């Protein structure tokens, strides 16, 4: 069964939030316990129900209904403000630290990933509206979004474009104070559902005669229901049949002169969208960690109960049984330790990012965002797979619960910008663009030991040697991201007094050496990659 | 769409089979083309049907039916002897080389993994019956099994034991010329189905007063239908609901004084079972590679068609379109090259094992078996995940076909002995037991370059230093297996004139450095692993 790791959470809160103007530490800890209890006792049992029942799409009404239990849970989340702890109190948010927000989000997503995705997206939408929307839009939409009465969606992708948004065709024609928007959007998470009274779609579109590529894109607020209560002309045309997250609708949305209101300036859509996307990307990293944590709990429980073979260490043999719990076997320990130590490190990384969000060190947050989205989701899914492996046949059948975590979690490596895109974002927009200044500020704050500093410098040297060759830089990017992720996490956990020494030693001896592999790939692996005949 | 890589296959046949007493090279190549066409055109379309329809269990009849299309395909496989090419001609087999068999098996499993599992198990059962059964049993059962009229199953696991078969409770009481067998077996792949006229279960059980642990185990042949045509008392009590392989039944079998005949000597059951398990373990490695190959084909097709963003290299920009095919992007090349180069290397490893099977170099085959089962399935599933990643959202939805390959293939890392067990088998039964002599013979044959030899020696030194501490040896085992796998594959592909130079260079620069990580883990990672407080 899933049990939230409250001791780790409390350590991170103490370390990275401390007493806060809106919440003192004791209040935050009470809050954590309440959310933990809710996630364990209410959300977790709904997770399998969601997988088996899934959503129901009604084509004649263009509507989607989610499982009944989800409505009750969503109401509890909203009534208790579980997902708005860090939002502006002016709109009903808690005004608390981001560290607290990330920890709560992790627990909710461990309990039920599909359901937790809905408020995660709403949060991102609120962030960009607060930063960019007109006062009138703010007044109408933000408070009900913060309370969960309305939810938010992000409408970027079209059939011909996902990664490359410059190819967007959706058209926004000005009319009176608003625009009429026509086009098709696909892969829209929670783009249609019956959890909230209204859905606030944030839609990328081009105004007539806008320039090509991304500089012609604007952002529009397109509500499912108009302020007068009438249905807007944005309808769900179908839902995807996915590997997992069966209870989280992924909608096709058809807009046929739907009414939309401009958010921010015309042709500044990408900038505004990134203000939604960046917190959502951190949120996706949190989702990855959340499934990895739930998988760890399942695997640890299994390893503590299943008896199979004798311990190789005579002292560990339990004479009351004909076999020992499998937790005594070295390979089982190995698998659990990989999961436990990397979960610990990733959680630390996310809390550390939350700290910089709270301190308004936005360049460091921007740098950490693609690392969290990409590294955390990838390592987390590896961890879920390891947990499945540890559980043997039980890991592969539905009764074991772990296989659902894999299927549900796998999308985190893909949505909100694939992990490959994150690596390009890191190396292009976050490192090269300011000549590594943000990275230097981060390292100054982290105080890495000499060997880690040397490692990062070696990686950077290869980058600098290839500034004239963007293909090589792009080929290097994924290994560079992982090298940086592990180095940062290594600094964080070795400086953490709360972490067990054996956990630190394991991380140092078993995980940290991965960085050498990535350095090899950075230094040598790119040219053969680009030269392969078959792909020229 | 799946297209078999016939050029690679032909290269391996030429290299490792040559002209053979039963088949000359030209005949084998014709055979390959026929199987390839069948797999691509007939099997592949049934794969999704199998996933969606699944098997149907009828509790009142204790019966399982597989999708209708599977019956037709199974008949073609049997009528053409596709799965019996390497079996003894005395019983209707083709008597051909194992290299040919592995290549055909790969194609069949790429086309439809669930269906291909049935003849794979039958093959394993035939192997142990030929080696161990009485003449009377051979006469009754082997020919119809070789032809596919009867299928085989392997009944090892019980609720309280999978890995640790010493805990088996199923009882075999002698009666006349046979035994009456009572107990419950679980996780029995194709333990019940309607593809063949009869199912020959090979069942591990203990005779009365047999000693504890595995030395008390005997092997029995328990047919679903008795020689007189009556139903034997072995009934399917249910089927598992799995992550994938929905069309491959995983049965609970209840035996209630079912009639069984001893195979081999009493209390020699484990030895006989391993004669079934070893070819099946190689077969599972082939299954892993098969899904990785199918995934590669899907990803390559996707990358060659999907247009998104401009190439960073102006020479590669296609002016006829507003975006380039994603195959031009370095990160896409990187993902494809990891899959392509490791698939190539793994296929080579399996063919090389087939060569030693044909040469009757059984110690080398025994050594390679756990490496193939474990390394190939793990790398293959990583590859399927990479293919899914490359395909973005399409990788995650059912229409993209790739997610099914992941779900279906994931069990290969678990069944026929989990990958952790393979590592212990390698290091304990295959290396330590003969003081590394088989490994030395293998290396002599492989002729590794000096640096690879030094690497393997370093790993062996750590093993030798810890012979008195089995826990450390066990902790080291998984990294040791991977180090050896990559080293062997590196030797094989760098010496292969057929492989593209850029593929070899990529493997050398990007994949081979993994061995250094594994060496680090071998040398440093085991003590902290064993010392972690939480798991003591």
From TrEMBL, chains A, B:
Record lineage: Bacteria, Pseudomonadati, Pseudomonadota, Gammaproteobacteria, Candidatus Comchoanobacterales
Keywords annotated in UniProt: FAD, Flavoprotein, Oxidoreductase
Organism, as annotated: Candidatus Synchoanobacter obligatus
Occurrences of domain Acyl-CoA dehydrogenase/oxidase C-terminal (ranges): 268-428
Gene3D superfamilies: Acyl-CoA dehydrogenase/oxidase, N-terminal domain (1.10.540.10), Butyryl-CoA Dehydrogenase, subunit A, domain 2 (2.40.110.10), Butyryl-CoA Dehydrogenase, subunit A, domain 3 (1.20.140.10)
The keyword Flavoprotein is assigned to this record: yes
Family per similarity comment: Belongs to the acyl-CoA dehydrogenase family.
Cofactor(s) required, per the database record: FAD
Domain (Acyl-CoA dehydrogenase/oxidase N-terminal) ranges: 29-149
Domain Acyl-CoA oxidase/dehydrogenase middle intervals: 153-257
Protein name from the UniProt record: Acyl-CoA dehydrogenase family protein
Keyword Protease part of the UniProt annotation: no
Pfam families xrefs: Acyl-CoA_dh_1 (PF00441), Acyl-CoA_dh_M (PF02770), Acyl-CoA_dh_N (PF02771)
